[in-house]
C-alpha cells in the first residue's frame, strides 16, 4: 500500500519524534466520552466513522503546530500520529500494564500508550498500516483503551475485550 | 489475540538497588539471569529519593525471541511516554512522569548480559536521567588527578577518538560520548557508564590495533567498533570526576592545536542548542535540566581547533592541563 502523502519528519534534536507536527485537531464523540484527537493524517478519520462502537466526528480544524489541545474534565486526548518513517505490517498484539499506564503494541508499526491518570492515548501508526487493519484491530483497541483511561470499565474487562490470550498471559 | 504482561512490581520477587551514573535505580524482575546481569551496578539498599527511578522487568519465557536487538529496536515518544519495541514482541515502556521503566522481554534478552550492561541500563539513564536530576551531556570526559575534562563538539568532531587517545596517556577514561552530570552536596560530578567505547570505522587510521576487530551495527544503524575500556585505558580509577575544564573541539584543516578562551554564554548556548527537545508535559525536569546546563557552563571554557591526529591533540591537551 502506498503511504499517505505526509512529509518525512527530521529533527536531530527530536529523535523520538515527540514534536512531529499534528496540524489537524478533531473532536470525536464516543457513546461514553468526548475525545480531542490530534493527528497529522486526516485519512485516519473516515475509519472512525465505521468503528465499533460508532463514533461521531463533530469538528475538524487545522491549527498551528504546537498549540495545546483543550481537554475538559470529561474528555480525553488521542494523539495519534502517522509515522511515515516506519514501514511493515503489524504483528501480534502485546500489552504491557504498568500501574496507570497501559502500552499496546503490534510491533513497530503500532505503538500506543494509554495513561489512565492523565486521560491520554498516545500512538504512532506506521505508513503501511492500511484502513482494514485500522478498522479491524487498531481503532477498536483505541476505543477499548479509551474505556480504560476514562474509567468506564474495569481493566480486567477491557483486557478481556482486547482478546487477551489466556495461555500467553503472564501475570507476574 | 493479544499477549498480556501485567508487570506488577509487588510480585516481581527479585530486587536490587542499582547506582548508575548518579541515579538510583530500584530494580525488580522475575529473572535470575537479568538480576545477575545487572549485578555490576548494585549498591547498598537505599530508600527511594529524588534520584530514584523504578525499573521493572518481566521475563516471559513463552515470548518468541527471533530478533536482532540492535537493528530491530525502535524508539518513539509522545508527551511523557517513550516506547521501545524490540522486534515484534519485546517492549520497554518509559514513563517519565512517574519515573518508571517497565519491560517485557524474552528468554534470549534475559540471558544476554551485555545487553543490560552496555545498552538497556545506559539507555534507561539516558531517557530517565533528567527526571531525577541527572543531566545527560553529549560530551566525552576524561580525568586527571581528580580533575575532569569535558570534551564537547559537534558529531564527527572526534570526541571519542580523542578520549581514547587521552586514556592511552595519563588520563582516566570516564566516557566517550555521553557524560552524566549530577550535583552531590552542591558540587557537580561527572559520571560515565561502563559501556563499550564506540569508534567509527575510519578510527583505524589512528588506532591500527583496531584492524583486527570487526565493526558492529549499533542501535542507531551506525557501523562502529566496540571497544571495552580495559582494551585501551592505562588508568582505571572509577567512572566519576569533578568537571574542571570544558573544551569545545573543532576540526581544522590547518596543522596545529589552537586553544582559545571561551565563556559560559557560549557553553550555555551550545548545550541548550544541542539538547534533545523536551516535552512540555515535564516542566520541572525541563527547568532542572536548564539549571544543570547553567551550572556546567560555568566551568573554565576553551575552544580547541585541531588539525592534528588524536594522539598529537592529546599531547597538546596534556600540556594544557598542566598549565591550567
Task: Throw out a few tags for this protein.
heterodimer; A: 172 residues; alpha+beta; eight-stranded mixed β-sheet; 3 helices; 18% helix; B: 324 residues; Rossmann fold; nine-stranded mixed β-sheet; globular
Instruction: Give the overall pLDDT of chain A as a whole number.
Output: 79
Distance between the termini of chain A: 39 Å
CATH fold label of the largest domain in chain B:
Rossmann fold
Q: Give the low-pLDDT segments of chain B.
A: none
Order of helices and strands of chain A: EEHEEEEEEHHE
Short description:
With 172 residues, chain A is α+β, with helices and mostly antiparallel strands. Chain A is built from three helices and nine strands, in the order ββαββββββααβ.
Question: What can you see in these coordinates?
Answer:
The complex is a heterodimer of chains A (172) and B (324). Chain A has 172 residues and is α+β, with helices and mostly antiparallel strands. Chain A has one domain. Chain A has helices at residues 45-49, 131-149, 155-161, and strands at residues 24-29, 34-39, 56-62, 75-83, 93-98, 101-105, 110-115, 120-126, 170-171. Chain A contains three helices and nine strands. Chain A starts with 23 loop residues before the first strand and ends with a strand. With 324 residues, chain B is α+β, with helices and mostly antiparallel strands. Chain B has two domains: 9-132, no CATH class; 135-323, P-loop containing nucleotide triphosphate hydrolases (Rossmann fold, 3-Layer(aba) Sandwich). Helix content of chain B is 23%, strand content 36%. The longest helix of chain B has 16 residues, at 113-128. The termini of chain B are far apart. Chains A and B meet through β4, β5, β6, β7 and β8 of A and β1, β5, β6, β7 and β8 of B.
Amino acid at each position: 500500500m502506498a503511504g499517505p502523502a505526509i512529509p518525512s519528519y527530521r529533527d536531530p534534536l527530536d529523535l523520538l519524534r515527540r514534536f512531529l507536527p499534528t496540524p489537524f485537531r478533531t473532536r470525536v464523540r464516543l457513546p461514553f466520552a468526548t475525545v480531542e484527537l490530534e493527528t497529522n493524517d486526516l485519512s485516519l478519520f473516515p475509519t472512525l466513522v465505521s468503528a465499533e462502537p460508532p463514533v461521531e466526528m463533530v469538528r475538524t480544524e487545522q491549527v498551528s503546530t504546537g498549540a495545546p489541545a483543550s481537554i475538559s474534565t470529561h474528555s480525553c486526548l488521542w494523539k495519534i500520529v502517522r509515522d511515515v518513517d516506519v514501514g511493515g505490517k503489524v504483528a501480534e498484539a502485546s500489552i504491557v500494564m504498568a500501574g496507570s499506564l497501559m502500552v499496546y503494541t503490534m510491533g513497530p508499526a503500532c505503538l500506543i500508550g494509554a495513561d489512565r491518570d492523565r486521560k491520554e492515548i498516545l500512538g504512532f501508526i506506521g505508513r503501511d498500516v492500511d484502513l482494514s487493519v485500522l478498522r479491524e484491530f487498531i481503532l477498536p483497541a483505541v476505543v477499548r483503551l479509551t474505556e480504560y483511561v476514562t474509567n468506564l470499565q474495569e481493566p480486567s474487562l477491557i483486557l478481556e475485550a482486547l482478546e487477551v490470550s489466556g495461555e500467553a498471559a503472564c501475570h507476574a | 489475540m493479544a499477549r498480556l504482561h501485567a508487570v506488577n512490581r509487588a510480585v516481581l520477587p527479585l530486587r536490587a538497588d542499582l547506582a548508575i551514573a548518579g541515579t538510583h535505580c530500584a530494580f525488580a524482575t522475575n529473572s535470575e539471569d537479568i538480576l545477575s546481569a545487572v549485578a555490576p551496578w548494585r549498591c547498598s539498599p537505599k530508600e527511594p529519593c529524588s534520584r530514584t527511578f523504578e525499573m521493572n522487568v518481566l521475563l516471559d519465557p513463552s515470548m518468541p525471541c527471533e530478533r536482532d536487538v540492535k537493528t530491530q529496536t525502535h524508539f518513539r515518544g509522545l508527551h511523557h511516554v517513550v516506547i521501545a519495541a524490540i522486534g515484534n514482541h519485546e517492549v520497554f515502556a518509559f514513563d517519565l512522569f512517574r519515573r518508571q521503566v517497565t519491560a517485557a522481554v524474552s528468554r534470549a534478552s534475559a540471558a544476554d548480559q551485555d545487553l543490560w550492561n552496555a545498552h538497556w541500563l545506559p539507555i534507561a539513564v539516558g531517557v530517565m536521567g533528567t527526571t531525577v536530576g541527572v543531566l545527560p551531556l553529549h560530551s566525552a570526559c576524561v580525568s586527571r588527578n581528580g580533575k575532569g575534562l569535558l570534551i564537547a563538539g559537534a558529531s564527527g568532531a572526534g570526541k571519542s577518538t580523542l578520549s581514547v587517545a587521552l586514556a592511552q596517556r595519563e588520563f582516566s577514561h570516564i566516557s566517550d560520548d555521553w557524560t552524566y552530570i549530577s550535583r552531590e552536596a552542591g558540587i557537580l560530578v561527572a559520571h560515565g557508564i561502563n559501556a563499550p567505547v564506540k569508534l567509527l570505522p575510519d578510527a583505524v587510521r589512528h588506532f591500527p590495533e583496531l584492524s583486527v576487530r570487526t565493526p558492529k551495527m549499533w542501535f542507531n544503524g551506525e557501523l562502529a567498533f566496540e571497544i571495552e575500556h580495559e582494551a585501551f585505558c592505562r588508568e582505571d580509577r572509577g567512572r566519576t570526576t569533578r568537571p574542571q575544564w570544558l573544551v569545545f573541539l573543532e576540526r581544522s584543516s590547518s596543522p596545529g592545536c589552537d586553544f582559545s578562551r571561551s565563556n559560559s554564554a557560549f557553553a550555555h548556548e551550545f548545550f541548550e542548542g544541542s539538547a534533545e527537545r523536551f516535552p512540555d508535559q515535564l516542566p520541572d525536569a525541563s527547568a532542572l535540566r536548564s539549571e544543570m546546563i547553567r551550572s556546567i557552563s560555568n566551568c573554565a571554557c576553551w575552544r580547541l581547533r585541531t588539525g592534528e591526529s588524536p594522539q598529537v591533540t592529546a599531547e597538546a591537551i596534556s600540556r594544557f592541563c598542566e598549565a591550567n
